[in-house]
Amino acid sequence: MTVTVRDFRTEDAAAVVALRRACVPFLIVTEEAVLFEVATANPAKKYRLLVAEEDGEMIGTAHVGIAYDSEVPGQSSVTPQVLPGRRGRGAGSLILRTAEEHLAANGATSVYSWALDEPSSLAFAERHGYLPKRPAHFQRLDLAAGALPELPAELPSGVVLRTAAAYAADPRPLFDADAEVTADEPGDISMDMDDYEDWLNHTWNHPCLDRELTTVVEVDGRVAAFTAAHTDGATRYLTAMTGTRRAFRGRGLAKLAKTDSLRRARAAGYREAFTANDAGNGPMLAVNRWFGYEICASEVRHVRDLVRPPV
Fold this sequence. Notes:
Helix content: 25-40%
CATH superfamily of the largest domain: Gcn5-related N-acetyltransferase (GNAT)
Shape: globular
Structural class: alpha+beta
Radius of gyration: 20 Å
Number of helices: 8
Number of strands: 13
Order of helices and strands: EHHEEEEHEHEEHHEEEHEHE
Strand content: 25-35%
CATH architecture of the largest domain: 3-Layer(aba) Sandwich
Number of domains: 2
CATH class of the largest domain: Alpha Beta
CATH topology of the largest domain: Aminopeptidase
């Protein structure tokens, strides 16, 4: 049996969704989102969506791209995903080699990759020269059965809850807040979000972003905190980002935003809530424990230096 790697085709969308759900069931992925990400990728990202096939059957996939919005030049990423029952046949290695060659040819000097925190995935990363860096945790909350905190009977003076949909005419205040809190997130690849049009294209217009379930906390008319909700349009809800601007921290506004969003998500029929946090993000991990989230899996980010091909 022969394993090959090629670029994604439009007709692959359903198979990519099924494969990702089998490999990482803690994320939200839809066919519309897969097609959107391929069609709207920033040219500077040099993005490729690779798929691995064994005798015509898709058994692996990977996002590949340059971290064009990082403050550090030359950073890139790829995370191979191979169906659990089809590992050990060379698909992951072939995806990785293809990705690394593409990234190096486009100026990458280092490549970051996530590996599930379990023996076979960690061993795969080590065999391919990747060094472990930061762990992160996937967390799950049973929205159908779990209790949720009540919203306060009366909000503090000057505090107003809105949805992201209220900013449809001018989402710039949400971009400013997102850029600030993203800059403070712990991680290996620092991000410098200074391109509003790029944010509109890839964050605000993402098909999984549920603007009605995304809660924004305003204080005296200013965006102070928010929680961004991604949904699959059926039963699964994911917190894509929760943050509080620096001037408003320590007031419980992140909890307020998440409480409002989660309660409305449950009322809308969503049954499971997921999120993920860097293991070093103690404040958000504590907030999620307070809501009743439980760690359902962990992963470790790895890095390898790349040797650029001769010119």
